[in-house]
Design goal:
about 160 residues; four-stranded antiparallel β-sheet
Length: about 160
Amino acid sequence: MITLDTSLLTIIVLVLVFVVFVLCITLFILYRKLTHFMRGKNGTSLEGVLSTILDTQDKITKRHHLLTQEHTVLQQKMSTSVRGMSMVRFNAFKDTGGNQSFAAALINEAGSGIVLSTLFARDRMSVFGKPIHNFTSTQTLSTEEERALAEARQSIE
């Protein structure tokens, strides 16, 4: 039989008591962290919180898909809407003052639209409209109309 000295036995017991004490403290800290982690909102479990998060993620994914579709539709509409606008005022006749005549260009991104012109005289006012496709017109444009069209095109780019 092995005989142990009392002092050696006492040291072993003290070391074991210390190890048990450290393990108890560690266990207590881990227990507190676990209860805090599992506590959730209003005492619900972690499973309930994760389920709510997954449901919210599904809703967000569906909403993102809808917003992407709406964005595509809006981009298509926007490309055909008037994006470039310009107006050039000028004096059409030497005997009238004040730059009452003007040429206005209204075009979309593809270069389709219209150029409106007015010629103001003392006794009458004339209005002209010319269609625009690919930034050009099938009808001859005046210098002021060409300038208005060029400025409208620059406002798009």
